[in-house]
Hints:
Chain A has 4 domains: 86-285, no CATH class; 302-430, Fumarate Reductase Iron-sulfur Protein, Chain B, domain 2; 443-577, Rossmann fold (3-Layer(aba) Sandwich), CATH 3.40.50; 585-715, Rossmann fold (3-Layer(aba) Sandwich), CATH 3.40.50. Chain A has 28 helices and 8 strands. Chain A has helices at 19-35, 53-76, 89-101, 110-138, 146-176, 188-215, 221-224, 228-238, 244-271, 276-286, 317-325, 331-335, 337-340, 347-372, 391-395, 402-406, 413-428, 433-445, 480-485, 490-502, 519-524, 527-543, 554-563, 576-585, 615-623, 659-669, 680-693, 706-715, and strands at 475-478, 507-508, 548-551, 572-575, 597-601, 627-629, 674-677, 702-705. Chain A has a 4-stranded parallel β-sheet with strand order 2-1-3-4. In chain A, strands 6-5-7-8 form a 4-stranded parallel β-sheet, with helices on both faces. In chain A, strand 5 (597-601), helix 25 (615-623) and strand 6 form a beta-alpha-beta unit. The A-B interface holds A 302, 305, 307, 425-429, 431, 433, 436, 439-440, 444-445, 450-456, 458, 512-513, 528 and B 12, 14, 16-19, 33-36, 38, 189, 191-196, 198-199.
Amino acid sequence: xxxxxxxxxxxxxxxxxxxxxxxxxxxxxxxxxxxxxxxxxxxxxxxxxxxxxxxxxxxxxxxxxxxxxxxxxxxxxxxxxxxxxxxxxxxxxxxxxxxxxxxxxxxxxxxxxxxxxxxxxxxxxxxxxxxxxxxxxxxxxxxxxxxxxxxxxxxxxxxxxxxxxxxxxxxxxxxxxxxxxxxxxxxxxxxxxxxxxxxxxxxxxxxxxxxxxxxxxxxxxxxxxxxxxxxxxxxxxxxxxxxxxxxxxxxxxxxxxxxxxxxxxxxxxxxxxxxxxxxxxxxxxxxxxxxxxxxxxxxxxxxxxxxxxxxxxxxxxxxxxxxxxxxxxxxxxxxxxxxxxxxxxxxxxxxxxxxxxxxxxxxxxxxxxxxxxxxxxxxxxxxxxxxxxxxxxxxxxxxxxxxxxxxxxxxxxxxxxxxxxxxxxxxxxxxxxxxxxxxxxxxxxxxxxxxxxxxxxxxxxxxxxxxxxxxxxxxxxxxxxxxxxxxxxxxxxxxxxxxxxxxxxxxxxxxxxxxxxxxxxxxxxxxxxxxxxxxxxxxxxxxxxxxxxxxxxxxxxxxxxxxxxxxxxxxxxxxxxxxxxxxxxxxxxxxxxxxxxxxxxxxxxxxxxxxxxxxxxxxxxxxxxxxxxxxxxxxxxxxxxxxxxxxxxxxxxxxxxxxxxxxxxxxxxxxxxxxxxxxxxxxxxxxxxxxxxxxxxxxxxxxxxxxxxxxxxxxxxxxx
Amino acid sequence: xxxxxxxxxxxxxxxxxxxxxxxxxxxxxxxxxxxxxxxxxxxxxxxxxxxxxxxxxxxxxxxxxxxxxxxxxxxxxxxxxxxxxxxxxxxxxxxxxxxxxxxxxxxxxxxxxxxxxxxxxxxxxxxxxxxxxxxxxxxxxxxxxxxxxxxxxxxxxxxxxxxxxxxxxxxxxxxxxxxxxxxxxxxxxxxxxxxxxxxxxxxxxxxxxxxxxxxxxxxxxxxxxxxxxxxxxxxxxxxxxxxxxxxxxxxxxxxxxxxxxxxxxxx
Lengths: 720, 267
């Protein structure tokens, strides 16, 4: 009997976050209607000698926001046009609601999620409260009396308290904890925003308490109790026996302070990161609707004059827009494998540097556009690529997508980084030597593994008759360059081959006719080479009537699945773990033998985060009898890259540590005997990383592919 | 300044050993299936040296010439993509199966035909046969001075300023123009072509000269003119032999080993 190990819970979207409180508050509303007489109410604009001042502030605020918007929009518009942002509107609206209003991603950090929800909901509700006061005061529509007035008093106070709880949590994190990421780029505005909001809320309570002391505390204590927090403060202040005149004097002054601070705080929206209030939901609307593993195609590449992004105006306006959404929360940099390893890339600083550069050169570009069309490309002696963003920063990116996964305002860092790499490679030919060697090898030999002594058919030795794909089989088994040309990955290829055969699948391989599908070229920024390789291979596939492909490698998988459709190459693509998990579930493949071992599982970025395949490999492990799975601390969508992604397989690392050493350490910490992955790069990185962090040979963890584990379970240990 | 770069297309030096085959009947290397020939790396470095001089001296021009099969167009295009201005392919059945001497005859004839050439840059040797003679023989045919195995070439007062690699150091030379230089790998890495140049190179047409265009006698070039005769081409067999030292004790075995090594004059 197979004992499935527990597959960890996937992070669930908590749709109910808003419903619980809403139901509770509504119930209280009904209670108010049922129990209270209709005379309850208060004088709007009580004791305020110049209530119209609010509208002066209001007008100033609207003017300021208009100015801010025009200024921002002018900078966005220097970017290139982009298309498709109004396609799939319902999907985009759902994104705006789910990621913008409901803040799904903010909640990936639980503490911040609660804090942000408190502050956000407080501001939303109190804005509605204030708007109702304005309508009651200055329109013929009167409704703030009777039960609704009391209910209104209640939820106004409730969300004031909720807001203060949020502010308290924020103050604690910023000033009393050793929480780092929010201090990586701390500015004056961060203090103003949080302290200011706290003061606005506090003065609001003082104001309400003073009003209650004069009009309700003794006259209508049953009404006053609905404003529960202000009522409590009023009761407290009442002990001091102030005269009514003193209280009214206090009320007048606090009113002015409260109103002035409230509008000043709203004014911060224009000048500080508070502008994410508007930009985050809109950016959620703009968020790509296709796979995050897909990079944009450069159309008509042979007709272009400039390749990729070398100047800030080469970005699309959407890419410039999203710079404004950044709130410097540091979540991207906190999960970035390069940053974690002390290498010269921090996605947050990259975005902020781009934003700063846009502010520096944007106005001059706008003027040049006006005067001389598009003539003045270079308006600054500071180069975007090289000076503002250093070459080594761009090369350190693993394209693992962790930054995009965590970004609560839906910034897409990876395409922006690759755009600048494209400029470096195709326009400037500035490439690290080892990466250049890999690209040259791709051009000359159709694979990135310079110096390999293996052939594409070497792995077939000793396997008997290996079927060559001729169009009559159902599946093409795509071995890939690593699977055939790198010694360590050959056993994986053999394992997958044997398992496919055992499952009874109808499949064939291309053998000598395989060439690289172009993934490393595209990730390294050579889009031109990628397009050539992709088009050649698509032609080969079509000529051979390939319909379904099983890949060894998640990178091949991603390219075939997400990127070949850009070139009219539409194939059904499966990673071997998906196929094998399916074959096991349908009983075509049976894990007869027990494999007594403890394992941990490493999600490759290109199978997991970028393509959402988390379950299939874990299902296989759970169906292997005796394989005991312990998850690493970072797993599933929070998994850490092995260090090889984004062409870093072929680069020298610059920085304090190597990413694969960091990840190997995390794997070793589980105490498992082997680390199981699904990607030839990950396995090579672990082969190198584990001995580095665990020098003693005895008891050292061994890296395996899922297929290698399954091979033992299906055919018995040591049967090859 | 007009520099000619001589470039040779060779079988890929990174061909896996298992795919390298020789046809004993014709004494020729069998082109490995699916493995395209490449530009000899030393010639790419020679091109890099020429292009750096071109960039440092306004109005300069670089022409790449290659003697070889039609496929050598790819090698020429590669140097054009790096930044060379023109390309000439010397492709004629009469040129085939020659030796270093006949190759130099053909290249020198082409250089003479170009006319206004100030310098010729070659790789220190082709990475297939590793003879390292063509550069010197071209200089001989042209009657120009030659400096071989250079790790640095710049323009100087006298013409060219050259740093040569010697076994025990470096040698600095000045050479008058015209001159021939063979460039060594110590010079540095060849550049990665920029895409706009790759596209410009793709549009350029490569001039094709035959034996008649160069005014050469077909009997003096290729196999007919070759002074070097290839007797036999073969892959050397690697082998090892193990001899165990007899003896009852380790001391006796050691003594036998010493005696054996002395007999072979190793000790």
